[in-house]
Amino acid sequence: MEENTHELLETAMGLFQDGRLTQAADLCRQVLARSTQDTGALQLLGVINFQQGDIDAAQHCFSTALLLDKTVSQHHNNLGNVLYVKQDRDGAEVCYREALRLQPDYAEAYYNLGNLFQDAGDLLEAAAHYRQALAFNPHYLVAMSAMGRVLLRQRQPTEAVSYFRQAVQIAPDYTVAQQGLAEALAAQGNSTQAIVFLEAELQGGNSSAQLYHRLGQLYQIQNQDERAQQCFLDAIRLQPIYPQACTSLGEIARSMSRLQDAENYFLRAIGQDDRCVDAHVNLGLLLTDMGRAEEAVARYRHVLQIAPEHMSARANLGSALLSLGKPDEAIVHYMAALSLEPGNAYTCYNLGNALRELGELEAAAGYYRQAMTAKPDFAGAIHNLGVVFYQQGYYAQAVAAYRQALVLAPDFAEGHVNLAITLLLRGAFAEGWAEYEWRLHMPGAARFVPPPARWTGEPLAGKTIWVRAEQGFGDALQFIRYLPKIQAAGGQVIFACRHELMRLLRHCAGIDQLVESGKRVSADYQVALLSLPGMFHTDAVSIPAPVPYIEADPTLAAQWRARLGGNGRLKIGFVWAANVHNQRIRYRSCGLWSFLPLFQLPNTLFVSLQKGANVADHLAELPTSSHLMDVGNELTDFADTAAVIANLDLVITVDTAAAHLAGAMGKHTWSLLSFVPDWRWLLARDTSPWYPSMRLFRQTQADDWAPVFAHVAQELKRLLSPLKF
Known about the structure:
The protein is built from 36 helices and 11 strands. The protein is an alpha/beta fold. Among the domains are: about 1-45 and about 55-65, no CATH class; about 395-445, no CATH class; about 455-535; about 565-720, Rossmann fold (3-Layer(aba) Sandwich), CATH 3.40.50. Strand 3, helix 29 (about 500-505) and strand 4 form a beta-alpha-beta unit. The protein starts with a helix and ends in a 5-residue tail after the last helix.
């Protein structure tokens, strides 16, 4: 009987070595049916179950073998492998250490302990155990490759190359070592040498899908996208079910702006393996690019269910939430990402962005500095530190930060524009106007698409020039003052603006032909409106300010005169909030209730010029007052607004188009400015060189409007005194 079971077990071992696992398992069960305490059969059957993915059955076999004989080191090691797969890392470590106590030269147990420490991020301990494994088995290929991987993570690519080369010399067809060697060479900065190595391996007949995939990744690093794409396709040709290669094809398609192709590749990878986290993460990035951030959030959450400690998924989830206007939630995930990878430059940078969005400027600056420490050439972090300085009112420091960022990234359009804005705010007009031209290179900016050619100062006698309004309504109203200067130079002006300005500007000086924005125009030249101040070398003393340069339609003005009446009251227009789509709405809105004390002043009529869906509801929340009139929803365009303003004595407004319109009409205008004002209002002055009839009331502390309105109330009371307005 014993001899028969021994022969059966030997036959089972032979079948196992031939890869015939099912037949080998059947023979093991026959042995155990005859001898339930045969630890050899239990051991082999456990290994077979393990390889077939039946982890519970494998654990039962190894545990039973241990109950029968605790002195066999292999039993402890194999049970450790099962516990490792089941995420019981502590239990696995106990098993491996017991195996080594029983057999101190057990290379496999040292290797397995190395894997445990590498997973835990303890690279020094991992390396020590891999070296021990190699000391007892110098030709232990998986330990060599694992040691190479640890060295790569320790940023020691030269040492990693030596381990991978040794493995390749021992086993030239060992794909894991070949891939590792290529990766280590690339990490050394020798990506070309890595490509040469892999090309030689492939041409030598080692047509491995994994090698094609790695070669494609190297071409991808070198921005050789077409070659990379072909390598990924070759990998899939050899191994059709290859989610990693599908993911790489999606990355290539995304880099080429073939967004739908990219989405299809990522979905194909996920279809092949829903646990392919790289495909989910890349699909999340793509969906964010496509404006589908909610779907991206769902993808990242799915990844975190599969791999809770996936740092990129956690950080990208934060970015998707930030794009959805949820900085509080974003911060939670950025902090979690930093706990997984402390000091990561990009996570620190994004966390700084989220904190800045909440107005937590000091905290944001701290994280930008951490990003700069981790990555000293991080132009974006240096730039955004400059933005924090700007928002804190430290303008000299902001300028210095912007300049430092631009040394590192000379074509960084946003950096140039923010430098321009800060210079203009400080009155440095010449350099400011020149830098401001970079706005035309910003994402979403209206591009110059010839014909006609861009005007750069050529003689205009007998020429037509298409001047294009840009940015907001206020910008158009402020800078059309330059159009007569073009006419004076001999040019015929075709001015393109948005529909809401058409009726107001149809008789405006400096315009020969008025067209709506978006329509192509036949002209000799074209120019963007806000380029004109720089082209005419404007400084603080040469600003053209011949107000009024905009006038209301007399017929409309007469209609509103009858509507508003006289009654001897001071008629005051007011606006408390910018357009909801304005990026600076936080700084250009003060809240309706801030005006409430003013409404109590006698002999006044406050006329709301505020437009918006809920304006009437907000006004209805105020105490009933005969001092209020709401006309905002009756204003169909700026011609109507101008007609109302023509009949007012004063306009009090936050920084909106109404301020520019009233100022351009020469109307007494009190503009309420945030602590960090828009560049056109300059600093430390209560008048504007752009609008002689305007007074500026400035915050002295961020987000504090109370002192501003106290000052306004004081000045209004003075106006309402017996002194004539």
